[in-house]
């Protein structure tokens, strides 16, 4: 079969989506490029197929389904909760592997019961994979940004530092660089004496006025980009953050937390134990984690195939809570999912719409299906 | 096999490149009249000179259409993915100096480093309803520096093919990534370079396309060694 053929198990997936009351939606293959670049960053540019319309609008071949499905939901002004399913081709520039391949998945928008919606996404992804990969041992890894957020908040770090760390969550190298900076603070220096005086005397209004007049003198608009007030506020914040130093024991705690990796069934007790031993108040985050576990158990999930990894996250600012991925015997990721509560408003939804979903890599699943069962995964 | 060397077709780059080749004992003469875009090396019949624009040279080197070229390192690294795998920077020629830098409005008193810029970029959308906009013609170098080296992903590139330094004041972008040699244009536009914002210290280079047929070709080695020798001498 050629790579662009619809996989033979596609009808099974569509039937499974219907059985789960997810409405299948179609989105155009040619999409405006801006939403993808805005959400995922410029890095995506070299991994997607870009083109431009005659009028200069930047267009791309659909690189994934979540953003088009969410945009469609907003454009059609549909009410929530709503479960969407999709199955179709996506297009990405990849060094290895095909550049066009099929993905399918479910996006669950507007379900307020976060724990059940999380559990349902995980159970659905697992069950559907089991359906099309009979007899394969699947394992799931789960991460939870909310727990990490609770840990950095409980350590008593200033909000600015919390934001930096949370922003880097899931990007091990970036996070490590930040932890280094926290261990060795560097004072802010080199400010103009006049600005320094205004800042030290906490004369914020005068500082703003000074910045404003300087911008006007140099021909800079005071509202097209960063405003004088914004610069003044961050100057003050930066000074406070630069003086922040995380003592050795707190850094050790944070590092210890990031190395946690254990069976999901044991994760609640381990997190509670970690919070107790470290004397950190993680109550609400652990309660939410427990509620998700309970919902998973209720839904009949096999927790023994699931691992919690504390450092697992996606460093994109619209992911907010749980993320997960499923592999067969540690091979390539067959399904990836997560909660993205911030995406809908970033894309222009007027109200806050909680969202969770998962995506299946049909080309990888197909490879496993056609491989004889005796062969290693 | 004829060896083709692509040299800048005009201006100081052309004169400086010719001077170095001459000192290397590779005297270049144009074929036909002075304005011809083809030339030869005196005494080497199987070497051809193609006079091209600097950006064409980096493209032709990347495609392996020429064997050698003299062009700016910035153009090669911007034009080619995996530049070091595809080309060999044989010699840095000591002219055409230009740094590719990240520069922000100097009124951004709170921004001195890429880490500061990371903080600003992370919050930009919440405050301004759009991502931080960078005016540049260096897409690849910007991405490598921002996301590769500093973990900054949330920004948008606004393509700018000229007068990039004016973009922040005109409001078409917030900051720039551009080349500078003396910094005076940046200063005139009230921009400052971040302390860790030098992406590349570029200069004119003798660049060789990595081709299998070059292996063991004595003429290839001779050209490289002569140019390197001229720089030492």
Q: Which tags fit this structure?
A:
heterodimer, A: 377 residues, alpha+beta, BirA Bifunctional Protein, domain 2, 3 domains, nine-stranded mixed β-sheet, three-stranded antiparallel β-sheet, 12 strands, B: 233 residues, alpha/beta, D-Maltodextrin-Binding Protein, domain 2, 2 domains, five-stranded mixed β-sheet, 9 helices
Rg of chain B, rounded, reads: 20 Å
Question: In which range does the helix fraction of chain B lie?
Answer: 25-40%
Assigned CATH class of the largest domain in chain A: Alpha Beta
Number of domains of chain B: 2
The total count of strands of chain B amounts to: 12
- Helix/strand class of chain B: alpha/beta
Q: Which structural class best describes the helix and strand composition of chain A?
A: alpha+beta
Give a quick precis of the structure.
The complex is a heterodimer of chains A (377) and B (233). Chain A contains 15 helices and twelve strands.
Protein architecture, described:
The complex is a heterodimer of chains A (377) and B (233). With 377 residues, chain A is of the alpha+beta class. Chain A has helices at residues 10-19, 34-40, 66-75, 114-132, 145-154, 159-168, 172-183, 193-200, 204-217, 228-243, 248-259, 264-278, 283-298, 343-346, 362-370, and strands at residues 23-24, 30-32, 50-52, 58-61, 82-91, 100-109, 138-144, 261-263, 306-309, 322-328, 333-339, 355-361. In chain A, strands 1-5-6-12-11-10-7-9-8 form a 9-stranded mixed β-sheet, with helices on both faces. The longest helix of chain A has 19 residues, at 114-132. Chain A is globular. Chain B is of the alpha/beta class and 233 residues long. Chain B has 2 domains: 3-96 and 203-232, 3-Layer(aba) Sandwich (D-Maltodextrin-Binding Protein, domain 2), CATH 3.40.190; 98-202, 3-Layer(aba) Sandwich (D-Maltodextrin-Binding Protein, domain 2). Helix content of chain B is 36%, strand content 32%. Chain B is elongated, with a radius of gyration of 20 Å. The interface between A and B is large, with 42 and 37 residues.
């Amino acid at each position: 079969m050629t790579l662009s053929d619809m996989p033979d198990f596609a009808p099974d997936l569509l039937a499974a989506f219907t059985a789960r009351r997810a409405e299948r939606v179609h989105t155009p293959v040619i999409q405006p490029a801006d939403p993808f670049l805005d959400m995922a960053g410029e890095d995506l540019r070299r991994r997607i197929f870009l083109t431009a319309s005659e009028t200069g609008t930047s267009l791309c071949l659909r690189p994934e389904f979540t953003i088009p499905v969410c945009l469609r939901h907003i454009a059609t002004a549909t009410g929530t909760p709503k479960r969407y399913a999709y199955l179709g081709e996506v297009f990405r520039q990849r060094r290895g592997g095909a550049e066009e391949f099929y993905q399918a998945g479910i996006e669950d928008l507007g379900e307020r019961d976060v724990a059940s919606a999380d559990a349902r996404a995980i159970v659905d992804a697992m069950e559907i994979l089991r359906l099309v990969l009979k007899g394969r041992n699947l394992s799931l890894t789960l991460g939870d940004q909310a727990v990490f957020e609770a840990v950095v908040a409980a350590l008593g770090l200033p909000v600015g530092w919390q934001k930096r760390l949370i922003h880097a969550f899931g990007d091990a190298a970036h996070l490590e660089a930040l932890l280094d900076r926290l261990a060795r603070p560097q004072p802010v220096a080199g400010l103009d004496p006049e600005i320094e005086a205004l800042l030290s005397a906490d004369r914020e209004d005068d500082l703003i006025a000074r910045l404003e007049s300087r911008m006007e003198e140099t021909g800079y608009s005071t509202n097209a980009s960063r405003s004088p007030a914004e610069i003044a506020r961050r100057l003050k914040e930066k000074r406070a953050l630069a003086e922040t130093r995380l003592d050795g024991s707190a850094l050790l705690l944070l590092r210890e937390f990031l190395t946690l990796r254990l069976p999901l069934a044991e994760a609640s007790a381990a997190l509670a134990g970690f919070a107790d031993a470290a004397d950190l108040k993680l109550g609400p985050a652990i309660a939410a984690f427990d509620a998700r576990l309970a919902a998973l158990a209720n839904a009949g999930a096999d927790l023994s195939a699931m691992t919690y990894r504390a450092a697992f996250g996606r460093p994109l600012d619209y992911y907010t809570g749980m993320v997960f991925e499923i592999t067969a015997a540690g091979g390539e990721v067959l399904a990836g999912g997560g909660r993205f509560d911030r995406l809908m408003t970033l894309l222009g939804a007027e109200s806050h719409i909680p969202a969770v979903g998962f995506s299946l890599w049909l080309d990888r699943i197909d490879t496993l299906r056609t491989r004889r069962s005796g062969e290693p995964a | 096999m004829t060896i083709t060397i692509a040299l800048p077709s005009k201006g100081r780059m052309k004169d400086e490149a010719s001077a170095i080749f001459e000192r290397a004992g590779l005297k270049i003469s144009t074929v036909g009249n002075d304005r011809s875009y083809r030339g030869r090396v005196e005494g080497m019949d199987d070497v051809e000179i193609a006079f091209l624009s600097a950006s064409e040279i980096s493209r032709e080197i990347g495609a392996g259409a020429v064997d050698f070229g003299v062009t700016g390192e910035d153009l090669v690294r911007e034009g080619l993915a995996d530049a070091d795998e595809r080309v060999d920077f044989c010699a840095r020629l000591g002219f055409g100096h230009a740094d590719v830098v990240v520069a922000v409005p100097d009124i951004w008193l709170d921004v001195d480093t890429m880490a500061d810029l990371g903080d600003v970029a992370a919050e930009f959308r919440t405050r301004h309803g759009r991502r931080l906009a960078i005016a540049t013609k260096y897409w690849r170098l910007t991405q490598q520096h921002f996301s590769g080296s500093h973990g900054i992903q949330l920004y948008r590139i606004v393509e700018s093919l000229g007068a990039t330094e004016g973009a922040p004041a005109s409001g078409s972008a917030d900051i720039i990534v551009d080349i500078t040699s003396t910094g005076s244009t940046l200063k005139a536009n009230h921009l400052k370079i971040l302390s860790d914002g030098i992406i590349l210290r570029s200069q004119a280079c003798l660049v060789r396309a990595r081709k299998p047929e070059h292996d063991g070709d004595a003429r290839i080695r001779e050209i490289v060694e002569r140019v390197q020798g001229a720089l030492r001498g």
